[in-house]
Amino acid sequence: MEIVNIHEAKTHLSRLMEKVAKGESFIIAKAGKPIGKLVPLDETETPKKRRIGFMKGEIVVPEDFDTMMADEIEEMFYGGSLFPK
Questions:
Q1: What is the model's pLDDT at position 50?
Q2: Strand 2-5 and strand 26-30: pairing?
Q3: How far apart, in whole angstroms, are the C-alpha atoms of residue 45 and residue 59?
Q4: Has residue 53 got a pLDDT over 80?
């Protein structure tokens, strides 16, 4: 948690409030001694960052994923195959 001295807090209050609105908290200090804490009104848990690839090896995507059921979809839209095989 970031510690901000009282002079800096007064000077940059709007910037600090924007950060508080995003869920950050600050300790306000006078002469290096903490005197208060600036926290969001409805303090919620910060969402966890999504990890790319966290299910690697657990899900298998078929090789023909991009063309799966193409004939059925084409028939739903056009009533038959436009491109005979």
A1: 81
A2: parallel
A3: 29
A4: yes
